[in-house]
Amino acid sequence: MDELASEEHPYGTTREEIERTLRHALDIVSDGIWDWNMITHHVHRSPGWYAMLGFPRDGLPEDVDTWKSVIHPDDFDGVMRGFQAYLDGHRAEYAEEYRCLCQDGSYLWISDHGRFVEFDDQGRPTRMIGAHRNIHERKRAELALQQRNEELQRINRDLEALIELRTEALAEANRALADQVRAAVQLAETDPLTSVFNRRKFQACLEHEWQRFVRHGHPTGLLMFDLDHFKRVNDSLGHAVGDQVLVAVTACLGAVLREEDCLARWGGEEFIVLLPDTGPDALLLLAQRLHARVPEACPQLPWRLTASFAVAGMQPGESVEALLRRLDEGLYRAKERRDCIERC
Question: Do residues 336 and 310 share a domain?
Fold first, then answer.
């Protein structure tokens, strides 16, 4: 934000105006935002944060302890581990899902994402901003699906225990059950809008490929891209068109990838690709092909659609977290220039 405040900007000329604009933008894409001054330990929370949990605006102290006090006891240790890992530099970003205590005593599932935004002269973080989003209904659906899947598996085990000789009817029931299980797995592993892998599935694939890289040293590449000025699509043409653009882009670019490649939606209009057995030259060539195809995905738009790309290869001795952080920093640099490819 310091850099933004020192330059001319279409949304304001002072730091206060720019920060106010950014807060409005965060309010649009989240249910509540928080702003932690790591020097004074003061935490500012937006009115939406309090409204989401049902608390009055001045009903809670504006500090970190308030946040800790509303985390569900069963989720607390995991959230703290993830938060500390980000503070220690072991994760590229802070992102957790957990339950928060509401004023009426109930708990609400939320997703929590945050990043450092200001640093002192020694490079130490002094300010962190994040956003909370209400994901309660999605979590309820996931838990219901999990319970249904477990019930189906229990029924199947009971049937097999009672019937030694499977009839064709039982075999057909098993096939139907397998279809349901596959559907449940697909729902848990794919993005519901674009049908590419979701973040959770990608991280599992990445961990597997990283283990293979450690054992055998096979070259492995990662590619991340973000659609430029995507907010303009939603604001000008509507979110339905924005969804169509995301679907079209993933279909267009996914057609270029191999079967063993892993394309996933990383978040919003940001996507990531895992490319086994792919060296630096092949990785850059693929990035150039994908970069060139982005405008072809949506030729009907009133302006030319572009994307910013970052590419990186696995390196000996580097952790998965460090690799993702390097790739994320490269994408940040690419997004500053727009419509380009950044080698990390």
Answer: yes
Distance separating alpha carbons of residues 163 and 173, to the nearest angstrom = 13
Q: Which domain holds residue 185?
A: 138-189
Q: Which residues, in sequence order, are CB contacts of 117 under 8 Å at separation 6+?
A: 1, 127, 128, 129
Same domain for 290 and 266:
yes
Nearest in space to 135 (alpha carbons), one of 204, 58, 192: 192
pLDDT at position 19, please? 58
Q: Which of 209, 269, 270, 342 is catalytic?
A: 269
Q: What is the mean pLDDT of residues 71-77?
A: 97
CA dist list (Å): 193 to 27, 76, 253, 264: 23, 31, 16, 12
Q: How many helices (H) and strands (E) does the chain have?
A: 12, 10
Residue among 94, 110, 96, 97 nearest 54 (CA): 110
SS3 content of the chain, % helix, strand, coil (to 5): 50, 25, 25
- What is the phi/psi pair of residue 306, to 5°? -135, 170
User: Has residue 201 got a pLDDT over 60?
Assistant: yes
Instruction: Yes or no: say if 113 and 99 are a contact pair by the CB < 8 Å rule.
Output: no
Distance CA 234, CA 28 (A): 12
- What is the per-residue pLDDT for 20? 58
Instruction: For residues 315 and 182, give the distance between their C-alpha atoms in angstroms, rounded to a whole number.
Output: 35
Task: Specify which residues 125 forms β-bridges with.
Answer: 119
Mean pLDDT value across residues 273-283: 96
Tell whether 4 is covered by a domain. Answer: no
Residue 118 maps to which CATH number?
3.30.450.20
Of the pLDDT bands very low, low, confident and very high (cuts 50, 70, 90), residue 158 is: confident
Regarding whether 310 and 180 lie in a shared domain, the answer is: no
Q: Which of 14-18, 31-35, 70-74, 326-330 has the lowest mean pLDDT?
A: 14-18
209 is known as an active-site residue: no
Question: Looking at residue 102, what DSSP letter applies?
Answer: -
Alpha-carbon gap, residue 313 to 326, rounded angstroms: 10
pTM of the model: 0.51
For range 121-140, the mean pLDDT: 92
